[in-house]
């Protein structure tokens, strides 16, 4: 059996390893347009800040592909998938045949379509090459605007401060982490960012990037303000990498559609990771959840099924963990579900120095925000992913101080 995988990152590698376990003899080819060995994207902002070194970002040992008997075609781009002919076409013109194909092509940063977005000094941060470009451009004392106060924007802003830059964080919505936390958690986080010297401007949409001789000079905001900056980082979310797919059944704007077995509508084609629209574990509705653990779990299910298993992916549970200078925020599930059966308990405890918010629906935990005091997050996520009826759980005799049905355990 010939298996071909497009993408050699979280989803592609997890699928390849699962395939090898299910089919020791199959020919497994991984194709990636990134030339370097697989690395951890979540570590890129820490690489930028200098908290980790380059040799710490590699995911696998140098002999990994050999050990697993994978053919790695790194630095090669797939330009088309010919589903009828069961082959993928490379930029070089070569056709690579497959019996089963996995698309694990991930996502790319969305760049706001504003004047000046293509000036020198406008950056995104998705790949190691992006990080290296940023690293080379940064100089202590330079002014940087980060557009987008999601997890990547926050972590990058903090990294820039560590590098000695003066940083302004610009967010269109009324708070930082707008899709991940409630207003109170956002205020605590915003206070911490400001303490570290980051200027935070919310409810402000960039209207253009002003340049001089092709280089960034300022970020213009919709209200007429102009922030003088030498660099702009666009951290305004991602969009699935599906441009090479011409089959309309696959190239949906919200991500490649898949069923619970991670199979696409096209015969013998599976998909996993940031390029797919999977199901939300808690709502059962189609959802785009571009996070590392979801990509790995989806890749594992796809890999096993490509080799003949009948595994089902239970659904993606949104979860984010942000740790900046020891200030931790862990969030997951649904933030603001509606309905008469929803109960939200929340408290800011000055003595403990933390904020907790738990969202229950019909006695089951469906949302979690922990700020400052994040212990027991793992237990909460286990309970949430299994949808256990929390109130009925007995307190753990080994942990009489902790009960998941109460705010502080
Ligand atoms: C700075 C940063 C920090 C992050 N932090 C976190 C975090 O803390 N926690 C978390 O859960 N997630 C985090 N993420 C998100 C996480 O990295 C992604 O969810 C994860 O990488 C998705 O894995 P994937 O395999 O689906 O896709 P990707 O990692 O995007 O890999 C897809 C690969 O396919 C390649 N490819 C695409 N198209 C083609 C083509 N046509 N031909 C050949 N190759 C192609 C791409 O170049 C890429 O190498 C972070 C992301 C970034 C950028």
Mean pLDDT: 94
Overall form: globular
Which range best describes the helical content: under 10%, 10-25%, 25-40%, 40-55%, 55-70% or over 70%? 10-25%
What would you give as the CATH superfamily of the largest domain? FAD/NAD(P)-binding domain
The radius of gyration over CA amounts to: 22 Å
Structural class: alpha/beta
Number of strands: 26
Instruction: Please give the alpha-carbon distance between the first and last residues.
Output: 51 Å
Uncertain regions: pLDDT < 50 for 5+ in a row? none
CATH class of the largest domain: Alpha Beta
By DSSP (H or I, 4+ residues per run), the number of helices equals 8
Strand order, largest beta sheet: 3-2-1-7-19
Bound molecules: flavin-adenine dinucleotide
CATH topology of the largest domain: FAD/NAD(P)-binding domain
Number of domains: 3
| CATH architecture level-2 label of the largest domain | 3-Layer(bba) Sandwich
State the major sheet.
Answer: 5 strands, parallel
Q: What share of residues are in beta strands?
A: 25-35%
